[in-house]
Amino acid sequence: MMIDPVTLTADLIRCPSVTPEEGGAIALLEQTLRPLGFACTRISRGGVENLYARWGTTQPVFAFAGHTDVVPVGDHAAWTHDPFGGEIVDGVLWGRGATDMKSGVAAFVAAAAEIVATKPDGSIALLITGDEEGDATDGTVAILDWMRKSGQTADFCLVGEPTSVTDLGDVAKIGRRGSMNGMVTVRGKQGHSAYPERAANPLPTLARVCAALAETPLDQGSEHFQP
After folding, report:
1. Partners of 54 in the beta sheet?
2. 132 a catalytic residue
3. Count of H helices and E strands in the chain?
4. What CATH number corresponds to the domain at position 216?
5. What is the mean pLDDT of the chain?
6. Which residues neighbour 73 within 8 Å (Cβ) at sequence distance 6 or greater?
7. Catalytic residue among 69, 131, 133, 138
8. pTM reported for the whole predicted model
9. Catalytic one of 131, 132, 133, 138
10. What is the span of the domain harbouring residue 33?
């Protein structure tokens, strides 16, 4: 069974899946994957619909992680094409998710359809979330929680977010850019401009803290990921 990734991308774009709405996107993937032999499991949490789909029952498991939710369209009238129309104009596919990342999901589904037709060893799994563009607490986290409880594992995982330097798809990164959140409180002391020596302006101190943080290398990167 061959799947046209462009057609599937357009069909997914026509699903108005603005976080956390499923919009029919997860249902469309289920309808596409089941005839290919994928066992599909809906994982619902916090009003978010997620999908775990697996072909095969043996190791190793090659997994693809992606999302079908998109950010809001903003001013609908400012769009030159319907954000949920999935129109192809002059060879360009328009709509929310055309890049991030319904196209990536569709491409992997199309590739998976060709691969499973050859009856390969091992298994292929798709981890599709509906909460990547939101708080991301009931999407990937919910799928991983379900996998742990269900004894599901993945030996390899490809995250299909759009990544490139010069040309589309010209690089695959090994790693993940982390993040750290913190709070800095600098306390000052009120005073009068006539007696500045009795006051303490916290802003210069805060500026020095910010400068020190900006100038401090957090890591050296790796062979596969820049600092």
Report:
1. 39, 125
2. yes
3. 5, 7
4. 3.30.70.360
5. 94
6. 18, 79, 83, 84, 96
7. 69
8. 0.84
9. 132
10. 5-159
pLDDT digits (tens, 9 = 90+) for 176-209: 777 888 999 999 999 999 999 999 999 999 999 9
Which residues make Cβ contacts (< 8 Å) with residue 209, sequence separation at least 6? 184, 186
**222 pLDDT above the threshold of 90:** no
185 and 155 in a single domain? The answer is no
Judged by DSSP in three states, 61 sits in strand
Q: What is the CATH classification number for the domain harbouring 107?
A: 3.40.630.10
Closest CA to 61 of 138, 154, 139: 154
Q: Is 133 a catalytic residue?
A: no
Residues 135 and 224 in one domain: no
* Residue 21: count of CB within 10 angstroms of its CB: 16
What's the number of domains the chain is made of? 2
Question: In this structure, what are the phi and psi dihedrals at residue 226, rounded to the nearest 5 degrees?
Answer: -70, 160
111 and 194 belong to one structural domain:
no
Residue 70 DSSP SS3? strand
d(CA 24, CA 157): 25
Q: What is the distance between the alpha carbons of residues 100 and 111, in angstroms, rounded to a whole number?
A: 18
Written as one letter, the residue type at 195 is Y
pLDDT, greater one: 180 or 50: 50
Cβ atoms 106, 8 nearer than 8 A: yes
